[in-house]
Amino acid sequence: DEAFRDRTSLVSVACPCSLVSIGRGASWGCSSLVDITFPAGLTSIGEYAFACCSALSSVTFPAGLTSIGDSAFAKCSSLGSVTFPATLTSIGWRAFADCSSLSSVTFPAGLT
């Protein structure tokens, strides 16, 4: 939880292959964060994990992701596109609230 909170000079995060969960508020307020590389084994992203990362412009989640926590990407004002995997079963309350630039959301084919 809150591993990199408010590290305003953090530009990029490459998560290790062994990471399966991103904790609550892990990168909250990292206003210069532009790029996140999620590992293939990631299954969950906690509440507020990337909230207020105002420079983040796009997110593609790995195939094994099952849950995105409440407000996980809230107030990411530059976030323009999101691509969800077929394995996703839960998106938390206000997960993408106040993402004013969000114009493209891609769901997997066949999702009902």
UniProtKB/TrEMBL annotation:
<dbReference type="InterPro" id="IPR032675">
    <property type="entry name" value="LRR_dom_sf"/>
</dbReference>
<protein>
    <recommendedName>
        <fullName>Surface antigen-like protein</fullName>
    </recommendedName>
</protein>
<dbReference type="InterPro" id="IPR026906">
    <property type="entry name" value="LRR_5"/>
</dbReference>
<dbReference type="InterPro" id="IPR053139">
    <property type="entry name" value="Surface_bspA-like"/>
</dbReference>
<dbReference type="Pfam" id="PF13306">
    <property type="entry name" value="LRR_5"/>
</dbReference>
